[in-house]
Design the sequence.
């Protein structure tokens, strides 16, 4: 049996708004409720299970996408006026990076550093 990631608990200030935001930006199916979570399924069957929490430290989450998906996501980000950066430290605002493919970073409503990239950094 191979080990596979099944789900991530995504602490949030507003699970509905956060789940709707990321599913909208990434062009995924709308979130679904499961128990007290709002779940967003990504392409490989992993779900992001948003859960309301009072205190949490924002994290970093990276989404590997095709070139066509990148174009669609990037168009939504720019159309929606979402600030984006080429680097994880947010010093190169309004730029994308090209190492080794294309990528950019943006913040979700909870302050998580979200990354969209077309090629993984590790072979």
Sequence:
């Amino acid at each position: 049996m191979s080990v596979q990631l099944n789900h991530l608990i995504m602490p949030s200030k507003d699970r509905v708004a956060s789940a709707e935001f990321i599913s909208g930006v990434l062009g995924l199916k709308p979130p679904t409720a499961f128990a007290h979570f709002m779940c967003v399924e990504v392409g490989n069957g992993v779900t992001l299970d948003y859960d309301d929490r009072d205190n949490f430290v924002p994290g970093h989450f990276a989404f590997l996408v095709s070139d066509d998906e990148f174009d669609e996501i990037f168009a939504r980000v720019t159309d929606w006026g979402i600030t984006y950066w080429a680097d994880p430290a947010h010093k190169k605002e309004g730029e994308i990076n090209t190492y080794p493919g294309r990528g950019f970073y943006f913040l979700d409503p909870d302050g998580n550093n979200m990354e969209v990239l077309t090629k993984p950094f590790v072979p």
